[in-house]
Amino acid sequence: QVQLKESGPVLVQASETLSLTCTVSGFSLTNYGVIWVRQPPGKGLEWMGIIWRNGNTDYNSALKSRLSINRDTSKSQVFLKMNSLQTDDTAIYYCTVGVTYWGQGVMVTVSS
Amino acid sequence: DVVLTQTPPTLSATIGQSVSISCRSSQSLLHSNGNTYLHWLLQRPGQSPQLLIYSVSRLESGVPNRFSGSGSGTDFTLKISGVEAEDLGVYYCVQGTHAPWTFGGGTKLELK
Predict the structure, then answer these.
(1) Which of B2, B10, B90, B103 is the best residue to mutate to test the A interface, defined by the most A CB atoms within 10 Å of its own CB?
(2) Strands B58-59 and B67-72
(3) DSSP string, A33-69
(4) Which of B94, B91, B101 is nearest to B20 (CA)?
(5) For every residue of B84-106, which 3-state class applies, written as one string?
(6) What are the residues whose beta carbons fall under 8 Å from the beta carbon of A91, sequence distance 6 or more?
């Protein structure tokens, strides 16, 4: 069955770079795109970006200058990198396939 | 970017009551391919979001048929015909017609 799991550091210092990995199983990254979504504590969902099945990417306009999404299809992994972190980047970060299948999320705290 | 406006922000209901949530888009969500990529999610407390309805009115597998979706263009509605306790949480609409995808602000369904 389709599964996604996010992994990465739970605590990051302000101004540093966040690196997260989404490891998927049950499907090929060349057949489906993977989306990153985040949710600050007590707030709503924010679409961050997508890596399409052909490897192309689209990003949230507000994050585009700081965000990159890449993948390793041989390892079934999708990578998120976001630089110049601030405290308001503190959030649960999710990866999802078509908003149908979701990972459990990883809570990332940005410390000043 | 497309803005999705959900109303009401909070909804109080009794068990068995029927309720509706509105999602209005700043642009038509009709894609050039003829599909409308407007979906509804439920996020229960402490859980990842769950897909309920996709493409306006199509019920995701395993979702009870008390959930239904309707609408077109810029106006969409999610209806729950007979709220049950397990339906409590925050509902989000999300559009995938225009890049970047965007989420509505959410509607919290609580018990009266």
Answers:
(1) B103
(2) unpaired
(3) -EEEEEE-TTS--EEEEEE-TTS-EEE-TTTTTTEEE
(4) B91
(5) CHHHCEEEEEEECCCCCCEECCC
(6) A38, A39, A40, A41, A46, A107, A108
DSSP B31-87: -TTS-B-EEEEEE-TTS--EEEEETTTEEPTT--TTEEEEEETTEEEEEESS--GGG
Q: Is B49 in contact with A99 (Cβ distance < 8 A)? A: yes
The first and second tokens of residue B29, run together, are 């969500």
The whole-number average pLDDT for the span A17-25 is: 98
pLDDT digits (tens, 9 = 90+) for B78-112: 999 999 999 999 999 999 999 889 999 999 999 88
Please, what is the average pLDDT of chain B? 97
B15/B89 Cα distance (integer angstroms) = 14
Which tokens sit at A21?
Answer: 């990995």
**A&B contacts, CB < 8 Å:** 52
Name residue, tokens 């649960």. Answer: A92
Q: What distance in Å separates the CA atoms of residue B7 and residue A62, rounded to the nearest whole number?
A: 24
- Of B22, B12, B17, the residue nearest B105 (C-alpha): B22
Could B100 and A58 be called an inter-chain contact, meaning their C-beta atoms sit closer than 8 Å? yes
* Tokens (6 digits) for A61: 């306009």
